[in-house]
């Protein structure tokens, strides 16, 4: 997979892309991630990539020229399966969408800043818009990093067997069961006996029950979906 990320604040992307699972996946060539500074594509002599909204209103709007030029030059090099725009006015990202996106070859993520981006960019260039939740962030950079992390961890060979993504919360529509590690007794607090029993079938059933219980309590919306599916 190759991911091209376009941003007017590329400094924001450095840390999350260079460390931990995403950093290692890049070093071992399991994913190629290239960051593009939008400002280097503007023809404005002051380096501007935004302007006042027609019709008035608060905040600045990202102008079409640098974005059309940047994406245009990328498309000359290779074809893209998706051009994604993270924005709060879009359907909320879920694991199913992440799973599908992780199968794509080349994608572009355009990080918007300020109050929004010129609608012509969305109409002509963007193929998918995703929100990461019902709250507002100042820019698309952090959502882009969330999207990248969620996809990259699913790429073949990125996670070891021990970290297998199949066990993740949400992968089966449920939250995860609680987990414990050594010591079995800590400050008078004991690990549930079933986990140290060595009975794998009992452990499996216990985890299934806890996952259902947690989901019912914390995310009744997800719980209803699961129950309706199995009926
Ligand atoms: Cl994708 N962008 C911004 N700016 N705010 C958000 C968001 C995205 N998702 C939720 N809030």
Short summary:
Helix content is 35%, strand content 15%. With 231 residues, it is of the alpha/beta class.
Structure write-up:
The relative contact order is 0.14. Helix 7 packs across helix 8. This protein has eight helices and ten strands. The protein has helices at residues 14-18, 20-27, 64-77, 95-101, 119-124, 141-152, 200-218, 220-230, and strands at 2-7, 32-37, 50-51, 61-62, 82-86, 106-110, 116-117, 128-130, 185-186, 189-190. It has a five-stranded parallel sheet with strand order 2-1-6-5-8. It has a three-stranded mixed sheet with strand order 3-4-7. A two-stranded antiparallel ribbon has the order 9-10. It has 231 residues and is α/β, with parallel strands linked by helices. The protein folds into two domains: 2-152, SPOUT methyltransferase, trefoil knot domain (Alpha/beta knot); 169-230, Trp Operon Repressor, Chain A (Orthogonal Bundle). Strand 9 and strand 10 form a beta hairpin.
CATH class of the largest domain: Alpha Beta
From the alpha carbons, calculate the radius of gyration and give it in angstroms: 22 Å
Which molecules are bound besides the chains? Answer: 6-chloroguanine
Instruction: Report the biggest beta sheet as strand number plus sense, adding barrel if it closes.
Output: 5 strands, parallel
Return the CATH architecture of the largest domain: 3-Layer(aba) Sandwich
Q: Based on DSSP secondary structure assignment, what is the total number of beta strands?
A: 10
Helix content estimate: 25-40%
Order of helices and strands: EHHEEEHEHEEHEHEEHH
The mean pLDDT is: 95
